[in-house]
From TrEMBL:
It is a multi-pass membrane protein. It comes from Skermanella stibiiresistens SB22. Its main location: membrane. InterPro entries: BPD_transp_1_N, MetI-like, MetI-like_sf. Residues 95-326 form the ABC transmembrane type-1 domain. The chain crosses the membrane at residues 101-122, 134-157, 195-218, 253-272, 303-326. GO terms for molecular function: dipeptide transmembrane transporter activity. It is found in: Cell membrane. Keywords: Cell membrane, Membrane, Transmembrane, Transmembrane helix, Transport. One of its GO terms (cellular component) is plasma membrane. PROSITE patterns: ABC_TM1. This is Peptide ABC transporter permease. It holds the Pfam family BPD_transp_1_N.
Length: 335
């Protein structure tokens, strides 16, 4: 067991080191001068060289990477040129909004995607199967920004079923103290039910747009797993014994795909956390995606690379968590 734990820690450390190397190289190859972004294009040569020395850009590349790793290990992701605050502080401020949006989206994906995949597998070759596959294909094919704009035009501008962009109406802005940063949770903790319902109404449309893509992925994988299980001998045996079809499908077949399905849901969740950039831009959602986009447009590479690094670390963490759950739930994986 200690050897396994040590091997796992080494694997995680090497993955994080590779992530640091990739983000470091991206920061060095993009055609943006971090010195000019810090001092402005009207600074004289002396100021330029002094800032270049302070940033360590006059050192050899391997030394720059060593300093970068040391800074990240201390929790220092640099200072944002756009906000003049530490990047880690900015990320901690905006990440809960992305977490709230992605969590709502993956809940929608699981609640609708798993039953849709089961229905498609049970009715293979018939119209429910074709319907689920077509909806999944559309979910994979349609650009998320286009779907978001259409959703705003239809449900907000035309039908007035949902409120407009943003996390909250302007009237309620600043009335709830950000204890967790997740607005719906903070409103409930503060006992502000009116603000909770307003925040939830703002969350519905962007979460549904993101959730649709999660439904497409989860339903497709659920269908594939279920088709494999329904061909197994234990399913035939259960049917021969007279067990009801609902029990065979929902308890035995679905129960046996629960373990790989956890990995699918975890990866889908990680994808939503790092793939909500366009959705947050369309809906003016003040999360990590919009923060990275605004920083990129302002040539703020410290913020861009810091946000990218945080997203990569979350992806690695969720992947590790799914692997641990896989081992806990499946005794064969432990052996």
């Amino acid at each position: 067991m200690p050897r396994r734990i040590a091997g796992l820690l080494v694997s995680v450390a090497m993955t994080l080191l590779g992530l640091l190397l990739v983000t470091f190289l991206i920061g060095r190859v993009v055609p943006i001068d971090p010195v000019l972004a810090a001092v402005g294009d009207r600074a004289n040569a002396e100021t330029y060289e002094r800032m270049r020395h302070e940033l360590g850009l006059d050192l050899p590349l391997w030394q720059q990477f060593g300093l970068y790793v040391a800074d990240v290990a201390r929790g220092d992701l640099g200072t944002s040129v756009l906000t003049s605050r530490p990047v880690l502080e900015d990320v901690a401020r905006v990440f809960p909004a992305t977490l709230e949006l992605a969590t709502a989206a993956v809940i929608i994906g699981v609640i609708l995607g798993v039953p849709a995949g089961v229905m498609a597998a049970v009715n293979r070759g018939r119209w429910p199967d074709h319907l689920v596959r077509v909806l999944g294909l559309v979910g994979y094919s349609v650009p998320v920004f286009w779907l978001g704009l259409v959703g705003l035009l239809l449900f907000y501008a035309k039908l007035d079923w949902v409120p407009g962009p943003g996390r909250l109406d302007v009237f309620y802005d600043g009335l709830v103290d950000p204890m967790t940063g997740i607005l719906t949770v903070d409103a409930l903790l503060a006992g502000e039910t009116e603000i909770f319902w307003n925040a939830l109404s703002h969350l519905i449309l962007p979460a549904s747009i993101l959730g649709y893509f999660s439904i497409a992925y989860i339903s497709r994988m659920t269908r594939s797993f279920m088709l494999d299980q329904l061909r197994q001998e234990y399913i035939t045996t259960a049917r021969v014994k007279g067990m009801s079809e609902a029990r065979v499908i929902w308890r035995h077949a679905l129960g046996n795909i629960a373990v790989p399905l956890i990995t699918v849901v975890a990866l889908s969740y990680a994808t939503l956390l790092e793939g909500s950039v366009l959705t947050e831009t369309v809906f003016a959602w003040p999360g990590l995606g919009q923060y990275i986009t605004n920083s990129l447009l302002s040539a703020d590479m410290n913020a861009v690379l810091g946000g990218t690094l945080v997203v990569g670390a979350v992806f690695i963490g969720l992947n590790l968590l799914s692997d641990l759950l896989y081992r806990v739930l499946d005794p064969r994986a432990r052996r």
